[in-house]
Amino acid sequence: MHIRVAQPADWPAVWPFFHAITAAGDTYTYPRDLTSEQGRSWWMLTAPGRTVVAVDEDGTVLGSAKMNPNQAGGGAHIASASFMVAPGHAGRGIGRALGEHVIEWARAEGYRGIQFNAVVEANTRAVRLWKSLGFEVVGTVPEGFRLPDGSYTGLHVMYRPL
């Protein structure tokens, strides 16, 4: 697997899993009915943000991450990021590799830390992965996320110093 900067031509490969994940509505705060063009504008960032794709040896896009300053102005020294792995490729270490890539990118860019603003508490796989990469839950908004079945779960704010 190789991680590289995403190109506009990668969007048709990212869109199917981006759409499936956001439409499922159980891990992202994105609207569930985003069009491809709306999704592209949310995911395919330009500087100072950056979007990458993880590809296998034949060029198949396995996952993607976007990274950016968490805030503007006085908060721009803290990075943020979002990650998606194509469901058919889950469990192969792609999310971990993307997470490690983002940590190294943020460190190289001079960020002082990385903050995830809305990690769905019920997404225990993601929470476990981020904790294993040195992130900690610094706060939780109780019932901050409505699941597709109508129930509520918390939204974690997670942080890792660099």
TrEMBL record:
Q: Where does the sequence pass through the membrane?
A: none
The chain positions of domain N-acetyltransferase read: 1-162
Which Pfam families does UniProt cross-reference here?
Acetyltransf_1
> PROSITE patterns given for it?
GNAT
Molecular function terms in GO for this entry? acyltransferase activity, transferring groups other than amino-acyl groups
Xref: PANTHER family: ACETYLTRANSFERASE, GNAT FAMILY, N-ACETYLTRANSFERASE ACA1
Q: What is this protein called?
A: N-acetyltransferase
